[in-house]
Amino acid sequence: MTTWKIDPAHSEVQFKVKHLMITSVTGQFAAFDGTVETSSDDFANANIKFEADVTSISTKNADRDAHLQAADFFDAANHPKITFVSKEVKKLDEENYKVTGDLTIRGNTRPVELSVEYGGTQKDPWGQTKAGFELSGKVSRKDFGLTFNATTETGGVVLGDDVKLLASVQLIKQ
């Protein structure tokens, strides 16, 4: 069994949600951790565990970040972590995988499917073996109890329901 850890200095975990239904706001988590265990060199059938600290959320707006951490949204005081545990990693071809697993946000656990593009494996200048992945998926924020919204003067909604999940992850072989 080989264990890989996320290299936070070379990884990003982001989300995008529609604002006023005309543009997307991008947020990211600065503090996160993850482990991948695999019995093969190609990551097929790997076991993935990931968590992000809700208090590390950043949308480049301090007031919005505070609101996202409050009870209206993530309720960081009662639910400080977002977690993901894989159920299946399926290799589609040399570069593409489908990962299914359980995502838990605000105490609500739902199955999700992520598309994963494998960027390759390389040794860095210090002799560490690293593997790179680009992940994407989409969830309904309401499925996780993130139901807060407001309406505009014309009756439109301020926030979209769909949240795009995006991650660029570099793993370090342990």
Can you put this structure into words, describing what you see?
There is one protein chain. The chain is built from one helix and eleven strands. By secondary structure, it is mainly beta. The chain has one domain: Lipid/polyisoprenoid-binding, YceI-like (Lipocalin), CATH 2.40.128. It has an eight-stranded antiparallel barrel with strand order 1-4-5-7-8-9-10-11. The chain is globular. The termini are close together. The mean pLDDT is 90.
Distance between the termini: 11 Å
The domain tally reads: 1
CATH topology: Lipocalin
Provide the succession of SSEs: EEEEEEHEEEEE
CATH architecture: Beta Barrel
Enumerate the spans where pLDDT stays under 50 for 5 or more consecutive residues. Answer: none
Largest sheet: 8 strands, antiparallel, barrel
Number of helices: 1
Average residue pLDDT = 90
Relevant CATH superfamily: Lipid/polyisoprenoid-binding, YceI-like
Rounded to the nearest angstrom, the radius of gyration is 17 Å
Strand order of the largest sheet: 1-4-5-7-8-9-10-11
Number of strands: 11
The general outline is globular
Main features:
single chain, 174 residues, mainly beta, Lipocalin, eight-stranded antiparallel β-barrel, 1 helix, 11 strands, 57% strand, globular
